[in-house]
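Propose amino acids for all 467 sites.
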C-alpha cells in the first residue's frame, strides 16, 4: 500500500443510500432539528393510536396495558407500580435530564450566553407563558379548574420544529434558532411552575436525601470520576429523595442535568494533540516490531475522543435520539388517550377545554408578540438579521403548539377524572389549531428564502445582536 493510497470512504458492510441519509446530520444544530422533526411524526402517530384505542373496542386492553404492574420482588419486599407510573415518573426523568442539560448548555455558550442574545427569546418566552395563563384563568373563573393555569404555558419543541420543517425554505434559519431558544426558556419556566405550584406537601427529609445525592455528584466530580455510569447511583438518590419529599421526582432529571459539566476536558485541540501523540507512539513501536502498542494507542485515542466533548454534550448526543424516538412517543401513547365520552362538553369541565384551547391558539402568539415588541421598543433586544414582524407572528403561532409538557402538567393539575379528560382535549385541540395556523400563516407571511445552514444563521444572529 503506497502512502498516497486513498482510504475507503465507508465500511465494507455499509449500504450507500443509508450512509448518505446518515451523513445529512453533520452539524449539531441541524441534526437536532432533524431529530425533532422526525420525533414530531412519531408523536403524531402515538397520539392518534392512543385516541383510537381509548375510543374504540380496544379501550379495555389499552387501559389494562398501562395499569399492568411492574416492579421488583425480593423475598417479602415488593416494589410494584403501574406501567403508566413507570413512564411518567421514571422514563420522563431522562427527558427532563436532557432538557436540563440543554438549558445549561444554552446558558453557558448558546443563545442564552449573553444578555443581548438572550433578551429577545427571554422576553418572548415570558410573554408566551404569562398571557396564556391569564387567558385560561379568565375563562376558568373562580372554579376549581383554576389549578390548570399552567397547562397552556409550554411549547412542544418537536411539533413546533415539525411545523417549520413542513414550511420548508420559507422559514429563515435565524427564525428556527429563535424558536429553539424560546422553547428552551419555555421548558425552564414550566419546570419552575411544576416545582413551585404542582408539588404537594414538601417533606424536609426527602430534600435532605436529594441534597446528599447532589453532594455525591459534586464529590465524584471533584475526584475526577469521568465514567458516566458511575453517576447513575447518586442521580437515583436525588430521584428517591424528591419522590419522598413530595416534589415531582422528574425534577431530579433537571437538577442532575444542571450540574452536569458543560466544559470539555480536552476539547478539539486537545483531541488532535492527544490522538496525534498516540499515533506517533504507535508508529514508533510498530517500527521497532512491537505490535502490542496498538491496544494502548487505541485506548488513548478513545479517551481523547470521549473527552473532546463536554460530558453534557456527549450525553445529549447519546440520549437525545432515545428521548425523541422512544420516551416522548411512549409518553404520548400513555397519556394522549382522551375518551370523548369521558370529556364533558358542557358546564365547568368544558371551561378547561375552551380555556386551554384559546390560551394556546391566541394567548401564546399574543404574549410572544407583545413582549417582543416591548423588548425591542425598550432597546433591550434586537431582531436577528432577516427577521421582522411577519416572522414573529409565525413564531408566536408555533409557540402555541403545546403537547408533551402541557399533558404532563395537566396530569399534575387535574389527576384522574373528567377535568383531566377535558384538559387533555383542550391540549390536543389547541395544538392542532395552532399547528394549522402556523402552516397557513407561514405560507402567507413568509416568502421563499434560500436554504442555508443553521450554524450560518446562528453566527449571523449573534453578530446582529452584538451590534
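Proposal:
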Amino acid at each position: 500500500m503506497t502512502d498516497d493510497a486513498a482510504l475507503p470512504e465507508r465500511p465494507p458492510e455499509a449500504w450507500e443510500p443509508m450512509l448518505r441519509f446518515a451523513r445529512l446530520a453533520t452539524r449539531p444544530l441541524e441534526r437536532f432539528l432533524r431529530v425533532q422533526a422526525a420525533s414530531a411524526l412519531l408523536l403524531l402517530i402515538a397520539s392518534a393510536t392512543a385516541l383510537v384505542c381509548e375510543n374504540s373496542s380496544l379501550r379495555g386492553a389499552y387501559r389494562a396495558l398501562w395499569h399492568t404492574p411492574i416492579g421488583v420482588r425480593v423475598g417479602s419486599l415488593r416494589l410494584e407500580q403501574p406501567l403508566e407510573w413507570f413512564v411518567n415518573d421514571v422514563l420522563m426523568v431522562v427527558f427532563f435530564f436532557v432538557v436540563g442539560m440543554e438549558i445549561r448548555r444554552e446558558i453557558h455558550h448558546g443563545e442564552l450566553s449573553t444578555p443581548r442574545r438572550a433578551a429577545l427569546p427571554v422576553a418572548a418566552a415570558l410573554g408566551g407563558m404569562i398571557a396564556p395563563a391569564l387567558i385560561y384563568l379568565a375563562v376558568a373563573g373562580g372554579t376549581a379548574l383554576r389549578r390548570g393555569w399552567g397547562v397552556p404555558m409550554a411549547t412542544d419543541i418537536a411539533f413546533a420544529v415539525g411545523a417549520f420543517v413542513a414550511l420548508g425554505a420559507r422559514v429563515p434559519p435565524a427564525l428556527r434558532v429563535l424558536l429553539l431558544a424560546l422553547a428552551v426558556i419555555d421548558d425552564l419556566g414550566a419546570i419552575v411552575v411544576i416545582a413551585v405550584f404542582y408539588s404537594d406537601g414538601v417533606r424536609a427529609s426527602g430534600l435532605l436525601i436529594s441534597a446528599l445525592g447532589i453532594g455525591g455528584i459534586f464529590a465524584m466530580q471533584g475526584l475526577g470520576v469521568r465514567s458516566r455510569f458511575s453517576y447513575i447511583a447518586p442521580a437515583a438518590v436525588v430521584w428517591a429523595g424528591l419522590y419522598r419529599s413530595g416534589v415531582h421526582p422528574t425534577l431530579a432529571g433537571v437538577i442532575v442535568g444542571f450540574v452536569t459539566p458543560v466544559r470539555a476536558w480536552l476539547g478539539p485541540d486537545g483531541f488532535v494533540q492527544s490522538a496525534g501523540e498516540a499515533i506517533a507512539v504507535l508508529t514508533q513501536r510498530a517500527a521497532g516490531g512491537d505490535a502490542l502498542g496498538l491496544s494502548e494507542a487505541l485506548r488513548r485515542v478513545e479517551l481523547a475522543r470521549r473527552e473532546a466533548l463536554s460530558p453534557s454534550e456527549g450525553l445529549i448526543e447519546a440520549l437525545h435520539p432515545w428521548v425523541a424516538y422512544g420516551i416522548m412517543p411512549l409518553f404520548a401513547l400513555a397519556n394522549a388517550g382522551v375518551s370523548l365520552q369521558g370529556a364533558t362538553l358542557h358546564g365547568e369541565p368544558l371551561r378547561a377545554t375552551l380555556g386551554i384551547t384559546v390560551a394556546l391558539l391566541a394567548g401564546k402568539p399574543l404574549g410572544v408578540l407583545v413582549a417582543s415588541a416591548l423588548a425591542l421598543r425598550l432597546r433591550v433586544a434586537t431582531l436577528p438579521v432577516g427577521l421582522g414582524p411577519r416572522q414573529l407572528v409565525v413564531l408566536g403561532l408555533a409557540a402555541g403548539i403545546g403537547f408533551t409538557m402541557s399533558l404532563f402538567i395537566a396530569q399534575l393539575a387535574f389527576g384522574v377524572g373528567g377535568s383531566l379528560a377535558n384538559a387533555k382535549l383542550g391540549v390536543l385541540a389547541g395544538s392542532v389549531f395552532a399547528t394549522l395556523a402556523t402552516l397557513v400563516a407561514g405560507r402567507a407571511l413568509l416568502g421563499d428564502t434560500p436554504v442555508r445552514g443553521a450554524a450560518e444563521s446562528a453566527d449571523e444572529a449573534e453578530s446582529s445582536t452584538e451590534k
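The radius of gyration is 24 Å. The beta strands are 69-74, 77-82.
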